[in-house]
Specification:
Two copies of one chain form a homodimer. By secondary structure, the first copy, chain A, is an alpha/beta fold. Chain A is 37% helix and 18% strand. In chain A, the strands form four sheets. A seven-stranded parallel β-sheet of chain A has the order 3-2-1-4-5-6-11, with helices on both faces. In chain A, α2 packs across α3 and α3 packs parallel to α4. Chain A starts with a strand and ends in a 7-residue tail after the last helix.
Chain lengths: 323, 323
């Protein structure tokens, strides 16, 4: 099939582009290259089934034009910077909520009715039930990022009801692996490369989070789109384990062969709106036959090896976030 | 206290303005008069504690200026037209989601940190649990209206977490009473005034809905703001009963002394995205000591008597919606 990937030059987007091309799909990559990297599309650009469109998701006309003839949109473009939301509150509204509206509106105009969307486990706020299932009690938002993704989910579901769209909405934990360019592994690797003896840690190190390896994430997306046939299909995507930040520090230190002295900023949260415990119940996607191939530890190590071999990403990404 | 009411010239807004003035508050009414009526503010305008500002919620600067010196904002301005959402999909995004962002952003700029917000029972979509409590299973949106209000709730909650705001979010059933200017009672009264022998009904007449009388609604808002002290306070507002559309037709016909032949458009829903059964569990607000004074039947009759005495509202409202 022919499909369009918004944010197709990003970490998850470019990995998806490569996998779509590998299975023989025609792919239009739509990216504004604000955080996306042309380097990630090196291989894709050699494929005759690949088209690159430089464009912004706030430009609804360009989006519509780029989608011509597509059967499906994978909408991954977003402001993924969870940590600094309160410093630029309008960014999440524009790049996540309004942008998602534009994608839907462009799809309507171009006659495309299938959409896969990268939402986030952050929509659960500080979940009342852990591990958190898709039908957890109605959550209260704690971050502008989560709120903007929830708004995107709502728009997509309403378009499904109102215009007969079909959607696959994925609530991700943090994704790790090759092309990973922001988050705590990125931050810790960078700190320890400069000063192996010291590590500054946000919070008290006991925050519990879950992670998923990028290729496992894409396997799950493919499984869901192939097998889930409801109008609105919502899936948590994560591993059946979580780790503490301290565990992650141990994995990273071992792999890098360092023993840093830790200094904690303190408190149970890394930043305002941080959720101290993210762990999703992924039994719904597992019932479709999917399971992750890598543990969190293995995913952390793959990420470190990628970063070590690709230190150029630190130059390319000047304002890393921590998630 | 001094407070600002967005949508203060509307049905609920102007009723709230009068009640705030009656208890001695200073009130700034902010309305663009797109659907608001200057007539509703006749009494308020004679009060020295009242200020009227004509402005749009899409104008963030004007909002901020109007809020100077206020302690609290009652954000009621909205596109309340649920039924025609799919005909102008951008309207809910702009007037409900982006407008709510603007209100919050203006509050931040003006140093106001308390907000009461008119959300809707529509955020529950087609609820899995009925009567539906505030912590019902995470819903899937079925209307652009519901999605836009859910987005507003998310933004407000995120501002509470990120900037130490305090919020009271009210998920209303349909409100009835004096100054009611859109919805099914309005539509049925108008039809039966013109042709007492005929009534066109959307759906099959078995849709079950709950309603609340305007003054009961305002009592509930005052009770919650006075007694609920969490950072984010979410309350369903409705009566502990529901009626079928057919019941409502009976109440209206009896009051008007007519016996119309009914013609149904058919189907269990009145329109795309209509929810065939809305009934909220209001035990949370009841635990604060509030209870409604009027039954749904009494509220319908008060509404009819108001419409009969104020037929000018039919001229003023050219595009009534049905809810």
């Amino acid at each position: 099939m022919k499909c369009l990937v918004t944010g197709g030059a990003g970490f998850i987007g470019s990995s998806l582009v490569d996998r779509l091309l590998a299975r023989g799909d025609q792919v239009v990559c739509y990216d504004n290259f604000e955080t996306g990297q042309i380097e990630f599309l090196k291989e894709a650009q050699e494929n005759h089934n690949f088209t690159l469109v430089k464009g912004d998701t706030l430009d609804a006309d360009a989006l519509k034009e780029a989608m011509a003839g597509c059967e499906m949109v994978f909408h991954l473009a977003a402001n993924a910077d969870v940590r600094f939301g309160t410093q630029h509150p309008r960014r999440d509204l524009e790049q996540n909520t309004i942008a998602t509206y534009n994608v839907l509106s462009a799809m309507k105009g171009a006659g495309v009715s299938k959409i896969a969307f990268s939402s986030t486990g952050s929509v659960y706020g500080e979940a009342a039930v852990i591990p958190t299932p898709e039908d957890a009690p109605f959550p209260v938002q704690t971050s502008l990022y989560g709120a903007s993704k929830l708004a995107g989910e709502g728009l997509i579901s309403a378009f499904c009801e109102g215009y007969d769209f079909q959607a696959w909405i994925f609530r991700f934990v943090s994704i790790l692996g090759e092309r990973y360019t922001h988050g705590h592994v990125f931050d810790f690797y960078q700190q320890l490369s400069k000063e192996p003896g010291k590590l500054k840690v946000l919070g008290d190190g006991t925050q519990r989070k879950s992670y998923l390896y990028i290729q496992d994430c894409i396997d799950a997306i493919f499984t869901a789109v192939e097998k889930a046939k409801d109008k609105v299909n919502i899936f948590n995507l994560g591993t059946d384990e979580y780790i503490e930040v301290k565990d992650s520090i141990r994995f990273i230190s071992e792999e890098m062969g360092v023993s840093p002295t830790l200094s904690f900023s303190g408190g149970s949260r890394g930043w305002i709106g941080d959720n101290p415990f993210i762990f999703l119940d992924c039994s719904k996607i597992r019932r479709l036959g999917w399971k992750p191939m890598l543990t969190i530890r293995e995913a952390v190590i793959r990420t470190l090896r990628y970063l070590k071999a690709n230190e150029w990403v630190f130059e390319a990404r000047r304002a890393p976030a921590w998630s």
